[in-house]
Amino acid sequence: MLQRKYQRRPAAKTSWERHGKWYSKVVEESGSYQKEVILPGVLSLLGLRRGEDVLDIGCGEGFFAREFHKLGVNVLGVDASPELIALAKKKGPPEVLYRVADAAALPFLRNGAFDAAVIILALQNMEKMDAVLKEARRVLNPKGRLVIVLNHPAFRIPKLSGWGWDEEQKLQYRRMNAYMSETKVPIQMHPGERTKEVTWSFHRPLQSYVKALHGAGFAVTDMEEWVSHRVSERGPRAKAEDRARREIPLFLAIKAEPQR
Questions:
Q1: pLDDT tens per residue across span 73-111
Q2: Closest to 56 (Cα-Cα) out of 31, 73, 79
């Protein structure tokens, strides 16, 4: 059973400070990727059992933690943003615990405390990936499992990839300007607004994730690629756009377990 001591809040500041409510609204919208694609995929990979202890690393405003709790598991969410954690607590329920913490250092958690852990759309925003994965391994029990969800690193490279259109073949394709080079990319928090505040995204090729997991003591046991559930409105390019969505994945999910 998780302990209330995990709710203590150290001070921290992140680029999400002023945008928690906006992000929460996006996640909770009907038809969001989080609801329609990621949640069912994560639940399928995790196979949660009632009474298990689950750690949500980079939990944000708590959407996934709340959904896991509905299945009868005990959930602790950690995030570096005090505002997002405050928002998660406000949304409740009180049985779901949250704590402001750096995912690369979780000294308040004992070794082997959790049956499962997730890092959903968060590892790509964490600079110290190796340290984060080592902490995830430390707090998982020997039979635990970790599920990571990423914007697909082969097709969704911030500022270095995008959609293209071949008029002759009537084909929509995905253009990648780079892939193998690890890059740190500033992402504007609110495109179209005057604010210049950014968050950071770290592009890494797939091999970097696999090697980091192995180095942290994990073995990759499953991997899935998830496509968008959305469809285009009627138009001359709708068929090609829908085909591109079905063929080019939006998310990559990796399941890993402690090496035995």
A1: 999 999 999 999 999 999 999 999 999 999 999 999 999
A2: 79
Which secondary-structure segment (H or E) carries 209? Answer: helix 206-215
- The residues that bridge with 184 in the sheet, in sequence order, are 202
Residue ranges covered by each domain of the chain: 4-155+204-232+250-258
- DSSP letter for each residue of 211-222: HHHHHTTEEEEE
Distance of CA 202 to the CA centre of its chain: 13
Question: Which ranges of 62-144 does DSSP label H, i.e. alpha helix?
Answer: 63-69, 82-91, 129-139
Q: Which fold has domain 4-155+204-232+250-258?
A: Rossmann fold (3.40.50)
**Rounded-to-integer distance, Cα 56 and Cα 146, Å:** 10
pLDDT at res. 9: 45
Full-model pTM: 0.91
Could you tell me which residues come within 8 angstroms of residue 20 by beta carbon, excluding any fewer than 6 positions away? 61, 81, 83, 84, 86, 87
- In this structure, the number of other CB atoms found within 10 A of the CB of residue 27 comes to 18
